[in-house]
Amino acid sequence: MTQTSETNRRIVLASRPKGAPSPEDFRLEQAPVPTPKSGEVLLRSVYLSLDPYMRGRMSDAPSYAAPVEIDAVMVGATVSRVVASEHPDYAEGDWVLAYSGWQDYALSDGTGLTPLGKAPTNPSYTLGILGMPGFTAYMGLLDIGKPKAGETLVVAAATGPVGATVGQIGKIKGCRVVGVAGGAEKCRHAVEVQGFDACIDHYADDFAEQLAKACPQGIDIYFENVGGKVFDAVLPLLNTAARIPVCGLISYYNATSLPEGPDRTAVLMRNILTKRLTIKGFIIFDDYGHRYNEFAKDMTEWLSAGKIQYREQIVDGLENAPKAFMGLLEGKNFGKLVIRVGADS
Amino acid sequence: MTQTSETNRRIVLASRPKGAPSPEDFRLEQAPVPTPKSGEVLLRSVYLSLDPYMRGRMSDAPSYAAPVEIDAVMVGATVSRVVASEHPDYAEGDWVLAYSGWQDYALSDGTGLTPLGKAPTNPSYTLGILGMPGFTAYMGLLDIGKPKAGETLVVAAATGPVGATVGQIGKIKGCRVVGVAGGAEKCRHAVEVQGFDACIDHYADDFAEQLAKACPQGIDIYFENVGGKVFDAVLPLLNTAARIPVCGLISYYNATSLPEGPDRTAVLMRNILTKRLTIKGFIIFDDYGHRYNEFAKDMTEWLSAGKIQYREQIVDGLENAPKAFMGLLEGKNFGKLVIRVGADS
Predict the structure, then answer these.
(1) CATH of the domain at B18
(2) How many CB pairs below 8 A link A and B?
(3) Which of A247, A275, A280 has the CB atom closest to B278's CB atom?
(4) What is the separation, in whole angstroms, between the first and last Cα of chain A?
(5) Is the CB of residue B161 less than 8 Å from the CB of residue B335?
(6) Are the C-beta atoms of residues A72 and A106 closer than 8 Å to each other?
(7) Chain A contacts in chain B segment 34-93 (CB below 8 A)
(8) Any domain includes B305
(9) What confidence tier does A86 reach under pLDDT thresholds 50, 70, 90?
(10) ipTM for the complex shown
(11) CB of B240 within 8 Å of any CB in chain A?
């Protein structure tokens, strides 16, 4: 079932998942393609970004953003093309970065659209290395992590779009960079392609010991995007005055209950006190939206100079989004996960 | 048993406490008064500061400072007078801020001494409002807490030397200040004398509900110096982008085991992420020693203008230090706890 000009396929939230999402939590629907009114554009999705934060939107627990309503289209960033325009700033065929969600077509009055021009190079990069994940990596590492040459930086999800970027910026800044990833293939990629100094497989039985060996000088920055056992292994290795930017906690997203005791909150608090740690959560566009241009300039330069390697995993077909997303939450993706929703021409 | 010129009474660490310290963990000894060599001064303790951090020094668990050795004199800041000087910068009768520990006499080569002149006003204030606790309050609140007018600041141990100062600086900066203290008398003092907007008794059965009611706009800054149930009650009330300076965790200091489960570390981390919290531990002289003059200037002005009220609890007699210290860890003190070791003349 492919994208057509007659129908708007859309994937809605059918039910709120208990634990890991299942196929029944999503429903593929067909709807008419909408017609733009004056001041609106009709957008056709070419690429849809799948990101861990979407798991939070499927729940109605309090969070930093409103949940997706039941029967509403799943949210998400898209790279789209203008099909018809009643808006003075956009013409048919223009590429835009939009937030159309998991569907073929969407209307927009221009709010939140970023023009990408008539013929962008690698338009899907604006969903990853040049978009939210890359920007998250850049600001979290540089503004909160404050890397100094010679320091040790540990980053989990080392081949994901955020982790891969964090580590490579860390190398540019002169850090020893130790990644954590799931499986030998990803770890090899982190070292051989991304240039990390080491990468530890979190599936290894002696993961914590291996991590300690890879960080003989301790850890000065831990870029937190997973939580759980990786954080447990990192905590005793943190140096005095270490910094921990927190942009995600993917290992908790599908949890339905807290782990068994004892309650180790006091362990974390004691470490914060005695090691004078800084732990800071951030939501990229809320905290740093005004600094996007600074990021875009640096990242564009690094990409064209070959200093940053970027890997995408492109999955064809909107109908495959739920399965791909469920795999993302289990660490099955390898690189930035993007759904190719429709043709790029 | 009072201070004499013949004997150096000293209190040493007899054993490492398991849980709360007991009288047997301390031993009062008599030793000869030492004689200064060339380049040294002999100091006589007038006031000894008792502070919660000393509990950490009694344990040999890893921390930010080395533990007191068994049979060694308990550490601590003192206000002392020079009895005899073989040091060119000091003369008999001079007052100094020193780190002589729990004893009548100590030698110093001048390292770490702060001259207080010939006739200081309120010399014991340099152990409290004008010393480490006041400085901790000042930098933690202003540099990490970053208070803005109209924000809500919550501070525990509200009549202790740190908490009382934090709250009063918060009022100077235009915050709504809500204290937490143990018992009605302390709470009344926080509101009536220190000018807090409210103060909640943490012994109340409905403590968490009362705290929530006292913070109708949520909490923007929580100055953390106790941990435990106060922190548990604060966490759900924290606003987006709230700041938590961490300078102490007194409720954990006597703990011998972690609380029962579940392990709520993930709850804290999720709050850090979704509310974009900043949590930062600090050790005042390590992090901010270079900014002491800035603090001293402001605090001296505030004190002389009557903008900061300061309460001391002075206990007579070095031999009473262990009991007073054990009470401090249980919240029995009311104001800055100082031992008057000897006469001030």
Answers:
(1) 3.90.180.10
(2) 141
(3) A280
(4) 18
(5) yes
(6) no
(7) 56, 62-64
(8) no
(9) very high
(10) 0.91
(11) yes
